[in-house]
Design goal:
The protein has 250 residues and is α+β, with helices and mostly antiparallel strands. It has a single domain, classed as Nucleoside Triphosphate Pyrophosphohydrolase, CATH 3.90.79. The chain is 20% helix and 26% strand. The chain has five helices and twelve strands. Strands 1, 2, 3, 4, 5, 6, 7 and 8 form an eight-stranded mixed sheet that branches. A hairpin with a 6-residue loop joins strand 11 and strand 12 (242-245). Helix 3 (152-160) crosses helix 4. The model has no long low-confidence stretch (mean pLDDT 93).
């Protein structure tokens, strides 16, 4: 078995990592998308709504937040992309979870772009919303098969134990959420700080592990996971994701 196969985590969805530029031949253009992280307070701390994708579609079997690609009809007359992303996130929440939301109340806290490559790629806006009233979650049992309210730290624990599947952007988001409570403190933190922009670069380290790098990491500019210095990365090792950060405020 190849070394990459031995060390690659089953939730490493980044595909081929040979490309270095968006304009290289064979690189798929990123598809604009949006997701909304729905939060509520509970007696045990903040919880986030997570949905499990149908195993037969893109990101099948993964636990995700409500979201999807931005449709042409989501764009306002002036073509504003963030406004379209807000509309798309609200539409997806209604379609996938049966919750009606006001997109102008969302807090934008991140934008993710996958590394350049031939795989299908979604450049995704991440929003957060506080659900104060009780809502009945109604999944369509088509694209979405199940749902749960879960504390972010508990979701990370279950992922580490191999009980649930989540992609790297979801993992980092859960880590970020786990650092604040109650929900109002999360939203205050997001509102007081700039939107985090993740232009992901995935490389292979000397030990064969794949590593997702983000701006600020010492190896980011040179696509080199083994450079010494500051860290802002996620190790995608078979034994579990490991987040290393010495420079970015979370």
């Amino acid at each position: 078995m190849a070394e990459g196969k031995k060390t690659q985590h089953r939730n490493d969805t980044y595909g081929k990592i040979d490309n270095r530029r968006e304009d290289e031949e064979g690189v798929s253009p990123p598809i604009p998308a949006a997701t909304v992280v729905l939060l509520r307070d509970s007696d045990n701390g903040p919880e986030v709504l997570m949905l499990r994708k149908n195993s037969k579609i893109t990101f099948g079997g993964m636990w995700v937040f409500p979201g999807g690609k931005i449709d042409p009809e989501d764009y306002p007359v002036d073509g504003d992309l963030e406004a379209a992303a807000r509309t798309a996130a609200a539409r997806e929440a209604a379609e996938e979870a049966g919750i009606e939301l006001k997109p102008d109340e969302f807090v934008c806290f991140a934008h993710w772009t996958p590394p350049p490559g031939p795989q299908k790629r979604f450049a995704t806006w991440f929003f957060a919303a506080h659900l104060i009233e009780t809502h009945d979650i109604k999944v369509d049992e088509g694209e979405i098969e199940d749902h749960t309210w879960i504390r972010p730290a508990d979701a990370l624990t279950r992922h580490r134990a191999g009980e649930i599947d989540i992609v790297p952007p979801t993992w980092v988001t859960l880590y970020h959420l786990s650092r604040y409570q109650p929900v109002s403190s999360m939203l205050q933190h997001f509102g007081d700080n700039k939107t985090k922009v993740y232009s992901t670069r995935v490389v292979k380290a000397a030990d064969g592990s794949r590593v997702a790098l983000w701006h600020g990491d010492a190896g980011y500019d040179d696509w080199d996971a083994d450079v010494e210095g500051h860290r802002h990365r996620l190790l995608l090792a078979k034994g579990g994701f490991v987040f290393e950060n010495t420079i970015e405020q979370y």
